[in-house]
Design goal:
The complex is a heterodimer of chains A (206) and B (542). Chain A is α/β, with parallel strands linked by helices. Chain A has a single domain, classed as 3-Layer(aba) Sandwich (Rossmann fold), CATH 3.40.50. Chain A is built from six helices and six strands; from the N terminus they run βαββαβααβαβα. In chain A, β2 and β3 form a beta hairpin. Chain B has 542 residues and is α+β, with helices and mostly antiparallel strands. Chain B folds into three domains: 177 residues, 2-Layer Sandwich (Beta-Lactamase); 172 residues, no CATH class; 146 residues, YNR034W-A-like (Profilin-like, 3-Layer(aba) Sandwich). Chain B is 40% helix and 20% strand. Chain B is built from 16 helices and 19 strands. In chain B, a hairpin with a 4-residue loop joins β3 and β4. Chain B is flat, with a radius of gyration of 25 Å. Classes of the chains: A alpha/beta (206), B alpha+beta (542). The interface between A and B is large, with 59 and 70 residues. Chain B: One of its GO terms (biological process) is autophagy.
C-alpha cells in the first residue's frame, strides 16, 4: 500500500444567506477579508493543507450558497462529508433560529451512517459589530449548542480574524476523527471465486 | 438529446464552470470570476459553455457527429493541438493556480469518489486537483440527482465553444472524467474512461469498493499502491499521446504475435501437459485455471483455458498491463516470481483470481488460479513449463518471428502498394495486426487518431442503418496535414475490420479509390491465408 498516507477531509459550511460563510473560509484559507458582499452562486471550493499534530491533512472546504434557490444541490454537496460547520450571525436572530433546520437538512441529505456521532461545529460570526446590535448572547448560544448534542461552539470575527484559526482547528480534528473511523475494516483480498469447470455458463460473463 | 445553452446568469447550472473572459491562460481566481460575471453575462459571447446532455440513446449524438464532420470536406485534425486546454478554466481557487503545467495539458483524466474526494489524477498536484474534484462532482450530481426518477439524465459530455470536451462516466460510488482538446469522437473518451474503471475494479473488485463506500467519506486514494498509480499514469499516457498503444483500445482486440503454426502447437501441448499434472493440496487436484505466455507489449503468444471459457479482451488487456508493470522491477531476473491477486472484471467483478507471474527473457508466463494458497503448486507447473519448452531456444525463434513478421508485412504490402500503414482486426479472434509504423513523425504519432475517426464513421453508419449488421461498410476520408494530404480508408464487415493510411498528392487529381481498395483486399486475403500464424486461434483448450 501507499507509503505516505494522504488524508483528505471534506468540510461543509452551512448557514443562512449573509452570515459570513465565504468570509470565514477566505479568512481561514487566505487570511483575507473583503468588505464587499457577493452572494455565493451554488458553491465555492477551497483547499488548504494544515498540520494536525504530527501529520498533514488536506481540507477540502465546500462553501455552499445560503440562498434557498440553490438548495436542490444539497445531496451533491453533503454526501461523504467529514464535518459540517453551521454558521449564524450573532446580530441576526433569524439566522440563529435556522441552525437546527440546517443541521436536520444536512443529516437528511447527507444520509450519514451514525447521525448521533457525526461532528458538527457551530460558529457565531460577526462579533466585531457593535455590542448593542448583538441579539444572541454567548450564554444562549452555548446552551442551544449543548442541546444540539454537545456541539462545540465558537464565536468569531471573519473580518478581524478573531478565533477563526481556533474554530477550524477543532473542525479539522473532529473531521479527522470521523475520517479515520473508516480504517476499521480489513482490506484483505478475500473474495474468492468458486469455479465449477463442469458447469455450463458459470462465472464468466463474456 | 437535450441541448441547451444557459443564458441566465442566475440559473446556477453553468456557473460552476465558466471560461474566463478574454481567455487568460491560467486558472482564474474566485474574485475575478465573480467580477467578470457582472461584466460579461453568460451567453452574451462566444465564450459561453455549451452543455450537452445526452440520454441513453446515443443515436442522435452520433448523427450530430456525422453531420458535423461531413460538412467539413477536409478535416484538418492535426491542427489546434495541445494549447487549447489552457484557454479556459474553472471558477475556483482564491489564488491563480501555480501549477501551470496542469493547465497546459492537452488531456486530463480524473478519478474521484461520489463525495468529490480525489482518487487519481493524471496531471496536477493534489493541491491543484482537490478543488476541481468538488466542481466535477457538483456538475455530475446536478444532472443526476433527480430523486424521483432513477432514469434521470446522466451528464455524459460537455463541449465548450473552443472544442474542449469533458466526458463523464458515473459508476457510483466512483466518478471518472476525461478532459480533452484533441477533438476525438465521444465514443473514444467513454471507452477510455470505461477502461480506467475496469482497471480500478481489477485492483479492488466491485464488492470491495461497494463495501468500502458504505461510508461515503471513504478515501480510496490511500489504498492505491505506488505500482497502481504508475500503471494508471501509463494507461493515461497511452490515451493522451495517441501512439500505437492506443490501438488495443481502438480495436478492442489484442495485438498479434506472428508465429509458425508448429511452434504455437508445441507451446499449446506443453500448456496442456500442465493440466495433466495433479499437484494440488488435495489428491488428484489441479488448480491451474488459465495459462498465458505473453511477449512484451502484451502480445499474446499462447493461452491455456477451459473449454467454453475464453477470457474477455478487456480482462486480458488489464492482466497484461498489471503484469508488465511488475516487470519494471524484476525484468531480466528469471528467478523472481510474483503472486498477485487480480480481479478480472469481465470474468467476475466481485472476486479475485491469483496470478503466478514469472519472466523468462522478457516473456511473461502467467498462471491463473482461483485458489489463494496455490502458489507452490503453480510454481511447480511453471518449472515444468520452462523445462519442457526449453524456453531460451524457443525464445530465439520467437524473437526472430517477431522481427521477421514486422519486416515482412511492411515489405510485402506497405512498400509495394504505397500504403503508409494498416491495421487488420480479426473480429472472430479479437486480435489485430498492424504494419510497421511510418517514419513520418506526425503521422506516426497520430495513427490511432486517424483510425478513431474512420472507425467512428463506420460505427455511425452501422447504427443509422439499423437492420442487417453484416453488410460491408467502407469509408474514405481525406486529411490535410500541413502541406500534405492523406487518405484514410476503413472497411468493416462481420468478420474483420481494416484501416489504412495512404499518401495523396492533392494536385494529382482524384483519389484512386479503386486502386486503394484493390491493394487493401490483397492484405485482407493474405491475413486470411495466414490466420493461424497471425493469431492465437483456439489456444490450448481443456
Amino acid at each position: 500500500m501507499s507509503s505516505r498516507k494522504k488524508t483528505l477531509l471534506k468540510v461543509i459550511i452551512l448557514g443562512d444567506s449573509g452570515v459570513g460563510k465565504t468570509s470565514l473560509m477566505q479568512q481561514f484559507v487566505n487570511k483575507k477579508f473583503s468588505h464587499q458582499y457577493k452572494a455565493t452562486i451554488g458553491a465555492d471550493f477551497l483547499t488548504k493543507e494544515l498540520p494536525i499534530d504530527d501529520k498533514t491533512v488536506t481540507m477540502q472546504i465546500w462553501d455552499t450558497a445560503g440562498q434557498e434557490r440553490f438548495q436542490s444541490l444539497g445531496v451533491a454537496f453533503y454526501r461523504g462529508a467529514d464535518c459540517c460547520i453551521l454558521v449564524y450571525d450573532v446580530n441576526n436572530a433569524k439566522s440563529f433560529e435556522s441552525l437546527l433546520a440546517w443541521k436536520d437538512e444536512f443529516l437528511i441529505q447527507a444520509n450519514v451512517s451514525l447521525p448521533e456521532t457525526f461532528p458538527f461545529i457551530v460558529i457565531g460570526n460577526k462579533i466585531d459589530i457593535d455590542e448593542n446590535k448583538r441579539v444572541v448572547s454567548y450564554k444562549k448560544a452555548a446552551q442551544v449548542c449543548q442541546q444540539l448534542g454537545n456541539v462545540p461552539y465558537f464565536e468569531t470575527s471573519a473580518k478581524d480574524g478573531i478565533n477563526v484559526e481556533e474554530a477550524f482547528d477543532v473542525v479539522s480534528r473532529n473531521a479527522l476523527q470521523q475520517e479515520e473511523a473508516n480504517d476499521e475494516f480489513n482490506d484483505d483480498y478475500n473474495d474468492a471465486i468458486n469455479i465449477h469447470l463442469d458447469g455450463e455458463a458459470g462465472n464468466c460473463t463474456c | 438529446m437535450i441541448r441547451f445553452i444557459d443564458n441566465d446568469p442566475d440559473a446556477g447550472s453553468t456557473n460552476f464552470l465558466r471560461p474566463a473572459a478574454g481567455g487568460p491562460t491560467t486558472a482564474v481566481s474566485l474574485e475575478n470570476i465573480h467580477e467578470t460575471s457582472h461584466e460579461t453575462p453568460l451567453g452574451s459571447g462566444a465564450s459561453s459553455p455549451e452543455l450537452t446532455v445526452y440520454d441513453d440513446d446515443d443515436s442522435e449524438d452520433a448523427a450530430f457527429m456525422l453531420s458535423h464532420l461531413v460538412s467539413d470536406g477536409y478535416q484538418s485534425v492535426l491542427q489546434g493541438e495541445s494549447s487549447d486546454f489552457s484557454n479556459f478554466s474553472f471558477a475556483l481557487g482564491a489564488e491563480p493556480a501555480p501549477d501551470v503545467d496542469f493547465a497546459s495539458q492537452a488531456k486530463q483524466f480524473f478519478i474521484l469518489s461520489s463525495a468529490g474526494k480525489p482518487i487519481f489524477s493524471y496531471h496536477g498536484t493534489d493541491e491543484t486537483v482537490t478543488s476541481y474534484m468538488g466542481v466535477i462532482q457538483t456538475l455530475v450530481a446536478f444532472f443526476q440527482d433527480d430523486k424521483d426518477n432513477d432514469n434521470g439524465d446522466n451528464l455524459r459530455t460537455i463541449t465548450t465553444s473552443n472544442r474542449t470536451k469533458f466526458s463523464v462516466l458515473n459508476q457510483s460510488p466512483l466518478l471518472f472524467m476525461a478532459v480533452s482538446s484533441q477533438n476525438e469522437p465521444d465514443g473514444v473518451l467513454s471507452r477510455q474512461l470505461a477502461f480506467l474503471h475496469n482497471f480500478l475494479l481489477s485492483i479492488f473488485s466491485r464488492s470491495f469498493i461497494a463495501r468500502s463506500f458504505t461510508r461515503a467519506n471513504f478515501n480510496l486514494q490511500n489504498h492505491l499502491s505506488s505500482n497502481d498509480v504508475r500503471a494508471l499514469i501509463e494507461i493515461c499516457d497511452g490515451f493522451a499521446h495517441r501512439t500505437m498503444t492506443n490501438l488495443n483500445f481502438l480495436t478492442s482486440s489484442l495485438e498479434y504475435f506472428y508465429l509458425k503454426k508448429a511452434v504455437r502447437a508445441r507451446i499449446d501441448d506443453v500448456f496442456l501437459s500442465l493440466r495433466a499434472l495433479k499437484l494440488g493440496d488435495e489428491t488428484d487436484s489441479n488448480n491451474l485455471l488459465y495459462g498465458l505466455l505473453v511477449a512484451p507489449h502484451g502480445k499474446l503468444i499462447s493461452i491455456l483455458r477451459p473449454r467454453n471459457r475464453s477470457l474477455h479482451t478487456i480482462d486480458l488487456q488489464i492482466l497484461f498491463r498489471a503484469v508488465f508493470s511488475l516487470a519494471r522491477d524484476g525484468l531480466g531476473d528469471s528467478q523472481e516470481e510474483f503472486w498477485v491477486p487480480i480481479c478480472l472484471p469481465k470474468f467476475n467483478a466481485n472476486g479475485f483470481l491469483y496470478a503466478y507471474v514469472r519472466f523468462v527473457d522478457s516473456v511473461a508466463l502467467i498462471l491463473l488460479s482461483a485458489t489463494k494458497g496455490a502458489f507452490y503448486e503453480m510454481k511447480q507447473y511453471a518449472n515444468s513449463f520452462v523445462a519442457k519448452l526449453e524456453l531460451p531456444k524457443i525464445m530465439g525463434s520467437l524473437a526472430q518471428s517477431l522481427q521477421l513478421a514486422r519486416n515482412g508485412i511492411t515489405a510485402a504490402f506497405v512498400h509495394n502498394t504505397n500504403i503508409l500503414h494498416f491495421v487488420y482486426i480479426s473480429k472472430k479472434h479479437l486480435q489485430h495486426i498492424n504494419s510497421r509504423l511510418p517514419d513520418d513523425e506526425v503521422i506516426r504519432n497520430n495513427v490511432a487518431r486517424f483510425y478513431h475517426v474512420l472507425k467512428d464513421f463506420l460505427d455511425t453508419q452501422d447504427s443509422s442503418q439499423t437492420e442487417k449488421g453484416d453488410e460491408t461498410r467502407i469509408v474514405f476520408r481525406k486529411w490535410r496535414t500541413g502541406e500534405r494530404y492523406l487518405v484514410g480508408f476503413g472497411l468493416a464487415n462481420a468478420s474483420f475490420e481494416i484501416y489504412a493510411l495512404v499518401p495523396h498528392s492533392f494536385g494529382n487529381g482524384n483519389v484512386r479509390k479503386d486502386l486503394i481498395f484493390h491493394n487493401i483486399m490483397g492484405i485482407v486475403r493474405w491475413c486470411a491465408r495466414n490466420e493461424e500464424r497471425l493469431f492465437v486461434v483456439g489456444g490450448a483448450v481443456f
